[in-house]
C-alpha cells in the first residue's frame, strides 16, 4: 500500500515538474509578431485550453497550456514562443504575485464571440478593427441594422462599431462629396434599408439602432468603437426624440433650438458638447479635436496611463503594450476634448499638451465600452480612397495592439476594480 502511495506521489510530482506550458512573450525585443500573438491566444481558448495574461510582465506576455496544435500554429503564423516547464511557469507566477510588483496573472476563460457592426458591402480594409481581426485570424461575424433591431446582438459577447454615423447625416460628407457617385449610392442604400425596416428617415432608424446597442451594453455586453462611431453614437443618444438633421439629410429642417434639447444624461462618455450647425462642415460637434490640433506629425504621440495591475485589472489589460508612448493617427474623429469627457469615464491614453483624450473606457449598467480616436493606427492621415494598410509591414504595431487588448479582455476572469 505504501509503495502504491509513493508511486502516485512520484507520478504527481513528475507531471507537475515536467508538464510544460507555451510562453508567448510580448515585449519589444522578444516578440516578432505581436498582432498574430493575440490570435494564438484566441485559438487556444477557442479549443478549450487554459491561458493566463501576465499583466505588465514582458510586455503583457501570455502563458498557455501546452498543446502541439498551438505550437504548430505559432510556427505557421510566425509568433515567437517558448515551451517551458511547469516549474519555470510557477517561478514566473510567484514573481508576478509579489506585492512589490505592479503585475498580475489574469486567467483567460473563454474566447468571446465577436460581432462587427458594418455595412455588408464594406471591404475589410475600410476599418482598422476588421482588418486586424482578419490579420490575427480571429473569427467574427458582420452584422448591421437589421440584425441589431432583431436582437441578434444577444448572440455576442463583444461588439465593434464600424466607422458609422449614428446621427443619420451620412458621415457629414455632404460638403465635399455630395456629387460623388459613392456618396449618392451610400445615401440611396441607407434610405432603402430604412424603408425596408419600416422607417421614413435614416436618422430614425439609426436612433433605434443606437438604443438597441445601448441596451446591449447595459445588459452586460462589451462595446468597442473607433473614429466617428464614438461621438456620433453619443450624439444620437443625446438627441433621442430631437430632430438635429437638416433638409439635405432627412427631407425636412432641424427643429428650432435643438442644442438646448440634448440630454447628456443619456450618453456614455461625453457631456456638454456643442453640435456643429453648418451641414457642409465635416464635423459633428465640439467633442472632436481634429480642427483644434496644432501638432506636427513627427511629434504626434499619446501616452498610455499606468494602473494598478492587482486592483485595476480592466484598464491594465486595455493598456498592455511594449511601449507606453504610442504614435498618434488622425480620423474624422481624431481625439476627444477633455472638457467634454465625463468625469466618470476613465482616460487610458492622452496627449496632455493638447488637452486631448485618445483612448477612453467606461461602464454602462452591467457592460463596458471603450472609445478609441482615429481611423487607422498605421495610416496617419487616412483619406477617402487611400490604399489599404498592409499589416504584414506592421506586425508589432502598438496602436493596433490596443484594439486587440479590447478583443481579448472580455475573456478574462476579472476582480472587482478598486478605482
From TrEMBL:
<feature type="signal peptide">
    <location>
        <begin position="1"/>
        <end position="19"/>
    </location>
</feature>
<protein>
    <recommendedName>
        <fullName>Asparagine synthetase B</fullName>
    </recommendedName>
</protein>
<keyword id="KW-0732">Signal</keyword>
Amino acid at each position: 500500500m505504501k509503495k502504491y502511495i509513493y508511486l502516485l506521489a512520484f507520478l504527481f510530482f513528475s507531471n507537475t515538474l515536467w508538464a510544460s506550458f507555451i510562453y508567448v512573450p510580448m515585449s519589444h525585443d522578444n516578440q516578432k509578431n505581436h498582432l498574430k500573438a493575440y490570435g494564438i491566444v484566441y485559438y487556444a481558448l477557442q479549443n478549450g485550453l487554459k491561458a493566463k495574461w501576465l499583466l505588465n510582465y514582458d510586455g503583457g506576455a501570455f502563458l498557455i497550456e501546452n498543446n502541439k496544435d498551438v505550437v504548430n500554429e505559432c510556427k505557421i503564423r510566425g509568433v515567437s514562443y517558448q515551451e517551458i516547464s511547469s516549474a519555470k511557469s510557477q517561478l514566473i507566477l510567484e514573481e508576478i504575485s509579489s506585492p512589490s510588483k505592479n503585475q498580475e496573472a489574469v486567467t483567460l476563460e473563454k474566447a468571446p464571440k465577436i460581432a462587427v457592426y458594418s455595412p455588408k458591402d464594406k471591404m475589410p480594409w475600410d476599418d482598422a478593427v476588421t482588418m486586424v481581426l482578419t490579420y490575427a485570424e480571429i473569427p467574427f461575424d458582420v452584422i448591421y441594422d437589421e440584425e441589431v433591431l432583431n436582437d441578434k446582438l444577444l448572440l455576442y459577447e463583444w461588439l465593434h462599431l464600424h466607422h458609422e454615423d449614428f446621427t443619420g447625416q451620412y458621415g457629414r460628407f455632404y460638403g465635399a462629396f455630395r456629387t460623388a457617385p459613392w456618396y449618392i449610392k451610400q445615401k440611396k442604400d441607407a434610405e432603402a434599408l430604412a424603408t425596408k425596416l419600416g422607417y421614413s428617415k435614416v436618422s430614425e432608424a439609426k436612433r433605434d439602432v443606437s438604443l438597441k446597442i445601448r441596451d446591449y451594453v447595459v445588459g452586460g455586453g462589451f462595446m468597442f468603437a473607433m473614429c466617428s462611431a464614438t461621438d456620433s453614437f453619443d450624439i444620437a443618444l443625446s438627441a433621442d426624440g430631437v430632430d438635429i438633421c437638416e433638409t439635405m439629410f432627412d427631407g425636412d429642417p432641424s427643429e428650432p433650438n435643438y442644442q438646448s434639447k440634448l440630454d447628456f444624461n443619456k450618453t456614455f462618455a461625453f457631456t456638454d458638447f456643442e453640435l456643429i450647425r453648418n451641414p457642409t462642415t465635416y464635423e459633428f460637434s465640439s467633442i472632436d479635436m481634429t480642427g483644434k490640433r496644432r501638432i506636427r506629425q513627427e511629434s504626434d504621440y499619446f501616452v498610455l496611463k499606468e494602473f494598478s495591475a492587482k486592483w485595476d485589472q480592466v484598464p491594465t489589460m486595455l493598456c498592455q503594450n511594449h511601449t507606453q508612448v504610442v504614435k498618434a493617427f488622425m480620423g474624422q474623429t481624431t481625439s476627444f476634448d477633455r472638457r467634454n469627457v465625463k468625469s466618470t469615464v476613465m482616460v487610458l491614453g492622452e496627449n496632455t499638451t493638447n488637452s486631448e483624450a485618445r483612448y477612453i473606457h467606461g461602464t454602462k449598467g452591467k457592460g463596458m465600452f471603450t472609445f478609441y480616436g482615429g481611423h487607422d493606427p498605421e495610416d496617419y492621415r487616412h483619406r477617402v480612397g487611400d490604399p489599404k494598410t498592409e499589416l504584414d509591414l506592421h506586425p508589432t504595431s502598438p496602436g493596433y495592439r490596443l484594439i486587440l487588448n479590447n478583443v481579448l479582455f472580455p475573456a478574462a476572469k476579472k476582480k472587482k476594480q478598486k478605482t
